[in-house]
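Field log, afternoon session.

UNIT: design team B
ACTIVITY: writing a sequence onto a fixed backbone
BACKBONE:
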């Protein structure tokens, strides 16, 4: 009974099959080179300026801000273009401000200030400016008590 032909034919098919498998294996192992298609070259308009980016006025943050629950004052004396602020804090005596940063989320002005002094080890104010009422609202994290309080600061009038 002859199913596949002679042994010679089977041997020939076996070699062909091995060569085909080896060829598939080898071509599968070589990385393809990416095809780069050049798109249309943009036309020169002569305008080399970058589009204008809306900047929030950090100057609104400057001032003396009194906490509405009494006795605490956050004074923001200067703010640079990167939002680093020169700030002081009083209760009513001066408390060291480790850092103060003014930033923006869209059109909303934000402030963060960390206090680092005796009885103020890493206390943190996180505030948002409300232009309609000229106030800062947010939270105060009291580090020693591990508690967060809602707070509000109103601008002190010029003396």
């Amino acid at each position: 009974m002859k199913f596949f032909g002679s042994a010679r034919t089977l041997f020939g098919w076996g070699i062909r099959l091995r060569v085909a498998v080896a060829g598939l294996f080898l071509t599968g192992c070589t990385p393809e080179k990416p095809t780069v298609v050049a798109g249309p070259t943009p036309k020169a308009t002569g305008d080399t300026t970058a589009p204008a980016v809306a900047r929030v006025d950090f100057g609104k943050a400057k001032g003396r801000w009194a906490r509405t629950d009494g006795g605490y004052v956050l004074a923001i004396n200067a703010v640079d273009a990167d939002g680093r602020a020169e700030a002081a804090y009083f209760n009513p005596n001066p408390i060291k401000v480790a850092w103060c940063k003014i930033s923006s989320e869209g059109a909303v002005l934000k402030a963060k200030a960390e206090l680092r002094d005796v009885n103020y080890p890493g206390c943190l104010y996180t505030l948002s400016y409300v232009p309609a009422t000229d106030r800062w609202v947010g939270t105060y994290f009291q580090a020693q008590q591990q508690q967060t309080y809602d707070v509000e600061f109103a601008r002190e009038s010029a003396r």
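LOG NOTE: The beta strands are 63-67, 73-79, 85-90, 94-95, 97-105, 108-117, 120-130, 135-142, 147-155.
NEXT ACTIVITY: expression trials, pending approval
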